[in-house]
Every structure is written in C-alpha cells, then in structure tokens.
Amino acid sequence: MSTVAHEHDHHHAPSGLKRWIFSTNHKDIGTLYLIFSLMMFFIGGAMAMIIRAELFQPGLQFVDPQFYNSMVTVHALIMIFGAVMPAGVGLANWMIPLMIGAPDMALPRMNNMSFWILPFGFALLISTLFMNGGGPAGGWTMYPPLVLQLGDAFPFLIFTVHILGVSSIMGAINIIATVFNMRAPGMTLMKMPLFVWTWVITAFLLIASLPVFAGAVTMLLTDKYFGTSFFSAAGGGDPVLFQHIFWFFGHPEVYILALPAFGIISTIIPTFSRKPLFGYASMVYATASIAILSFFVWAHHMFTVGMPIKGELFFMYATMLISVPTGVKVFNWIATMWKGAMTFETPMLFSIAFVILFTIGGFSGLMLGITPVDFQYHDTYFVVAHFHYVLLTGAIFALMAAVYYWLPKWTGYMYDEKLGKIHFWLSTIAANVLFFPQHFLGLAGMPRRIPDYNIQFADFNMISSIGGFAYGLSQLLFVYIVIKCALGGKKAKSQAWEGAKGLEWTVPSPAPFHTFETPPKLTKAMLEH
Amino acid sequence: MATKDIYYIPEGSKWPIFGSFALFSLFIGGALLLNGSANANTVLYIGIALVAYMFVGWFNEVIGESRSGKYNQQVDVSFRMGMGWFIFSEVMFFAAFFGALYYARMFSIPWLGGLGSGTATHEFLWSTFEATWPLSVTPDPTNFDQPKDVIPAFGVPAINTLILLTSGVTVTIAHWALKANKRATLILWLAATVILGFVFVFFQAEEYAHAYSDLNLKLSSGIYGSTFYMLTGFHGFHVTMGAVMLLVILLRSFKGHFSKKDHFAFEAVAWYWHFVDVVWLGLFIFVYWV
Ligand code: HEM
Ligand SMILES: [Cu+2]
C-alpha cells in the first residue's frame, strides 16, 4: 500500500479505524486480542449461564435438550479458542517484545492477520446456532458418528476449526521468530523472563498439534460428504481413530492453555514476594518436559473406549509422569514465596489462588489418570470439575492476574485496588461454590452433557448454579475496573510495582507506541529475574 | 547473527484484513456448496478470486520492499524462520493422515478381522470379513465401491518418484548456479524443475482417472480408497502449489531479482519443494509399496 510513498513517522500512532484494522503494531494488536478475548469470555459466559439456569433444578425448564447441548458445545469452543487462547496471544503480543527488548513482533503484518481472522472465524461459528438443524451439539470434542448427524452447521463447524487453526499457527510462528530472532543483545535464552519461555514452548505445541486437528476434522468432512470411511468400521476404519487423532491434539491443547498461565504466575509471584523466582532453570526444563510429555498421554481421555490393556497401562503411567514436572513448578512457586516480604495486591491474590486451586485440579487430574478409577469418573461431572479447576481457577485466574499486573503499563494508571480485591474475593468464592460440588456430583454418578438429572443430584446442582450466577455477575465488576483504569486514576510510574523485574518496567507507563526502536543496552540489573 | 543496529517495521497494511475476509468468503462458499445452497458457487468463486488477489498483492508489496533494499538481515532471518516453521506445520498436517493409514493397517483392519479385542465385533457384525491390505472387500461390502485392483507401486508411481527426486536435484543445481552468479544456468535448471513438477502432476492426474474409471478405486472404496486419495490428493495439491511457486521464482529469475547473497524467496520455494519430495517418498513407501 502506502509503505513506499509515506515518510516514516514512527512517533505518532496512525489514527481512526485504520490504526486498528491495518495495524502492524504489537501493542495495538495485543489490545485488540485482549478486548476480543474479553468479549468472547462474556458470550461464552452467557452460554454458561443458560447451562446453569437449566441445571438449577431437575427437569426441563428453559431450553430444549438439543439447544442445551449446543450451548455446552459452543460454550467450550468459544472459551477455549475465543477467550483463553486469544487472551494468551494478546499478552504475548503486548509483553514479549517489551520483555526481550524488541521493537515489535518479527512478522508484524502476519501478526495483524492472525488477529483479524478471529472475528471472522467466530462469526462462522456463532452463525451455526441459527442454521437448519441447529448449532453443533455433539460436544467440543466432535466425536463421530454423532457429530456427523449435524445439519447445515456441519461444514461451518469444520471450517471454523480450519480458519482458527490458520490464525493460531501464524501467531505461533510469529512468536517463535520473535523470540529467536529479535532479542536485544545480551538477552540470552536463559536470561529470558519465564513468561517468554513458556510462550515459546506453547508456540511449538501449537505448531505441532493444530495441523493434526485440522487433519482430523478434514477427515470428518470427507467422511460426511465424500464417502470416505476413516471413522466408519463398515468401510474398514474406526470411530475410535478420530478420538486418537483428536486427543493427540487435545491434550497438548490443554497445555497450550496452561503453559502461558504458568509463565504469568512465575512472573507475578517473585514480584510480590520480593525474591527472585526459585529454581529458574528447573522451571524452564519442567515446562519443556511437560510440553514433550503432553504428546504421549493423549489416550487418558479414552480409557473406557476399549483399548488393549497395554495401551491403558502405557497411557496411565505416562500421565502419572507428567505430574512430576507439574509438581516441580508448584514446589518452586511455593519456595519463591517462602520467607519472602510478601504483599497481597490483586495480581498476587489471583496468583496465590491459582497455585492452590490449580493444584486441586491437578490432583483430580491424577485421579482421572488412574485407569481403573477413571472407569467410574469418565464422562461424569467429576471431569467437569477437574477441567474447570485447571481452566477457570487456573488459566483464567492467571489471565486476570496478568491483566491487573500489567494494566498500569498499558494504561498509565493504577487500577482501583479496593475494587480489584473485591473482584478477587467474589470470583474465588463463587468459582469454588460453582465447581467444588461438581466433584461430588460426578463421584455420585451424574453424567456430563445432559440437561436433566435425577433428583438425588438436585441440592448440589442448585448450589453450583448459585455459584455460577455469582461468578458471572462478578465479572461485570472486572469490566468496570478495567474501563475505569483505562479512563484515569492514580498515575502509574514506569516501575509500577516496587518488586517487579524485567525490561517492561524500564519504559514509561503507558508504554509509548514504539519502544526499543534501537536495541536497549542491557545492564546486569535489568537481566535479573 | 543479524545486524542489530536497525530494525525494520512495516507500516500498516491492508492485505492482512483483506486476506482474512478472503478466507472467510472462501470458507462460506465452500460450506454453502457442501450444503447444496443455491448461490454457493458465486460465493466460492469470489472467495477464491479474493484469496488469489490477496496473494498477488501482498507478495508484490513484499517483493517491492525487498527490491528497494528495505530489508536487512534480521528481516531475512525472520522470514526464514517463518517459512521453516510453516513447513513443519505442514508436515504435522500430513502426519495426521499417515497416522490414520498406520492405524487402519495396524489396528482397525486386523481387529475387524477378528484379531485381539476385535473377536466379538468380527463374530457378530461381519464374520466373513477378511483382513487384507490392500483392502479390496470392506467389512460391509454393500455400501462401498469395491475396487477391482489398486495401483501397483512399480509403474507410474515409481516413475513419478524418479521425476520428483530428479526435480530435487535440478532445483539444487539451480541454487548452485544462483550462488555462482550464473543466471542462464539458473534459469535453465529452474525451468527444468518447473517442467518436472507439472509432469508429475500430469501423471498423477492420469493415474487418478485410470483408478477411478477403470479400477473402480474411489474415495468411497472403504479405508483403502480413503487413505489413498486423501494422502496422494493433498500431496498432489501441494505439488501443484509448489510448482506454481517455482514458476513465480522462475519469472523473477528472468527479471534478475535474485542475487548471490539475497535470494530468500528462492530458498523458501526450494525448501518447500524438498518437503513435497520427502512426503512423496513416504507416500511411495507406505501407500503404494509395502
Ligand atoms: C496433573 C495434570 C493433569 C492430569 C493428570 C490430567 C488428567 C486428565 C484426565 C485423565 C482426563 C480425562 C478424564 C475423563 O474424560 O475421564 C482429563 C480431562 C480434561 N483435562 Fe486434565 N489433567 C491434568 C491437567 C490438566 C490441565 C492443566 C488442563 C487445562 C488447562 C486440563 C484440562 C482438561 C480438560 C479440558 C479435560 C476434559 C476434556 C473433555 O473430555 O472435554 N487438564 N484430564
Ligand atoms: Cu489430557
């Protein structure tokens, strides 16, 4: 376009709509990602409210079962691919260049495209809810043959996966190129902040697993429309094959959601403990081992599907193994806090809650990873409780912590600490009221993805729904706090948090449109972590 | 490593959002077509045209910037990493289909034939089914096109293997010529590579026609036909794309775009070409031969 004709003017942001839709600026694109993610969080959240309203009492009250199931399915897809992943990429966009002393992402135009694909992708997905035959209702895992019964929405669902995959792969490639090619001199790999490390490892997971997912759904598509029999036993294929391919992607995917969260927590806890992170190198190696192992545990999602016993055992042991590096991390976070001069600002509160509640999710994961026990737990609310502990009080709490932590850097103002704390306590209490009883429901045998239940489950479901509504409402407070902070408040210093380490705190708050246009000279103190 | 004194950050660009929209219309068109909607073709063709226009426009802009000397070594390294990891993601895409092939041959077919935990399925569902590979009679023979025969490895596929391997050599010779500043030689060998690429595609198309109409080997011939066509089909598509990319590089060589030192685009295409080559070797061995 106008690249050649225009004088480069690096100190003024372009204005108006063009600034956002043509952007090649990592901060603007990061902001777009974060806002988009927040919107998806509320759309997906609204669906969760419908689910909890229906489950408030036994019997069918508000929605018909088909629609209920599409709510369950689309809620999951939106939260995973629309809320948590884009929020992580948004943070990566904003923070990685600032943390490694780079002027921007390595491939800025591709960066823009990876963002702008998202609204189109979700337009495809959400439009399916209004189609003939309803939205996807077979669960986010899209198992055949059930998913093949979907009506007009089917090809749209498949293409949503493709287009979102394109976006994520481009984002991942960009992060790898940025980290390996754009670091300021002196920022060696083992000096990088842990957030950068966890993200670059996540990027590898994305590149290695998303194409496999794309392949799997392509096979679904051809099975439905072109007569192939990948997942049809009558033609020599096997529906279970889909589950293998899906979970080969699916398990790394849960770490795609979790690893950036680990990076956030490893950044925030040292700041408010005023101590360096305990065991930096072991954190890096633990993250890498989790990532590698995550490709060898997939069939723990399939214990009840009828695998040969050797397979069951292999995947059980491999799953147990993955909790070792996870344990290393939890140990290091606690050791970082040990004897630290701790203060409890909102980001730190969310981080501590993360450590405790994520660990609960890890423990229930361990229980699920034990093959014979999983025969009882599989496809019950116990699984639902497990993954919400690791995803909501895990990944989402870490994202909330990150937003509070870096808001001063983004907006130039401190957020309202009192409201932040209220938001934290409301969220934490509500999330536990919401998800803790689901463990009991699952152990007692309540199946997941069903709109009605036996009256024996009524009490716990009502408690859970009350927690759900409370959690949903509390997030409105979060939006208020963020908007309030963006509009004004106490001025933030460049070093917004006294104990914070890292290059991002050497630039003014708010961070100017362009930073590190020439590589910063790094001093020893700047490289501490 | 890269010169770290100056960074190059491109100005805002209309292409990314244009491309996102193009992909959007392409997919909507495709989905409507599969649903049998009335205006599907129009949307699909618009989508294809927009995507093509996006590629041409975007690459033109990048080539222009590169020619005007805006890029430094750091940009070059970023591009290289981008291309390298893109190819890796493609490898993983093929891995899904190779995985399906492996699973069908090692697990699902033997199980359907009654092996191991498949005994009951075999007894109660399709007790006459025999596990063979290539699978000519599917467990339920009624709903599938039973192939008369399959394509033998040592016919056209072996010739195609030679063609692709040769093209890997010719593109390497072209690269040497480029690095030795011999433009005529570069063009000659690059042209040879392009021709070999298209010849491969031609043979592949012939073979498809033969398999479809003479051998009754179709996508709907059960798992053999499914894996056969999906693997060779996606590969053939990649070869076609690669050949088109080679053609672009050839045209740019005519224009004298590449220099001894500065020829990332050439190398990117060459890498891509080697990638389709390696995938083909996997196909030749596991789909046609063993
Ligand atoms: C200590 C580590 C973990 C272990 C041992 C573990 C184990 C398991 C097992 C065995 C299941 C399958 C249960 C069943 O369907 O019967 C499961 C489900 C699940 N886990 Fe984990 N998990 C761990 C950590 C995580 C993390 C970190 C996340 C995400 C951030 C996660 C997300 C999920 C999700 C989303 C499901 C449900 C998938 C579905 O069926 O829809 N898990 N986990
Ligand atoms: Cu898993």
User: Helix coverage percent of residues of chain B?
Assistant: over 70%
> Largest inter-chain interface?
A-B, 87 and 79 residues
Instruction: Report the oligomer.
Output: heterodimer
Q: Give the CA-CA distance, first to last residue of chain A.
A: 42 Å
> Can you write the helix and strand succession of chain A as a string?
HHHHHHHHHHHHHH
Q: Return residue spans of chain B where pLDDT drops below 50 for at least 5 consecutive residues.
A: none
Report the span from N to C terminus of chain B.
Answer: 45 Å
How much strand content do the residues of chain B show?
Answer: under 5%
Q: Mean of residue pLDDT of chain A?
A: 95
Query: How does the major sheet of chain A shape up?
Result: none
Bound molecules: protoporphyrin IX containing FE, copper (II) ion
The largest pleated sheet of chain B is described as: none
The domain count of chain B comes to 2
Per CATH, the architecture of chain A is: Up-down Bundle
Please identify the structural class of chain A as seen in this structure. mainly alpha
> Regions of chain A with pLDDT < 50 over 5+ consecutive residues?
1-11
Brief summary:
The complex is a heterodimer of chains A (529) and B (290). Chain A has 529 residues and is mostly helical. Helix content of chain A is 66%, strand content 0%.
Structure description:
- The complex is a heterodimer of chains A (529) and B (290).
- Chain A is an all-alpha fold and 529 residues long.
- In chain A, 66% of the residues lie in helices and 0% in strands.
- Chain A is built from 14 helices and no strands.
- Mean pLDDT of chain A is 95; it is low at 1-11.
- Chain B has eight helices and no strands.
- Chain B folds into two domains: 1-71, Helix Hairpins, CATH 1.10.287.70; 72-289, Up-down Bundle (Four Helix Bundle (Hemerythrin (Met), subunit A)), CATH 1.20.120.80.
- Chain B starts with 14 loop residues before the first helix and ends with a helix.
- In chain B, 72% of the residues lie in helices and 0% in strands.
- In chain B, helix 5 (156-179) packs antiparallel against helix 6 (183-214), helix 5 packs antiparallel against helix 8 and helix 7 (223-254) packs antiparallel against helix 8.
- By secondary structure, chain B is mostly helical.
- Chains A and B meet through helix 1, helix 4, helix 5, helix 6 and helix 7 of A and helix 1, helix 2, helix 3 and helix 7 of B.
- The complex binds protoporphyrin IX containing FE and copper (II) ion.
- The site of protoporphyrin IX containing FE (HEM) has 25 residues of chain A, from helix 7, helix 9, helix 10, helix 11 and helix 12.
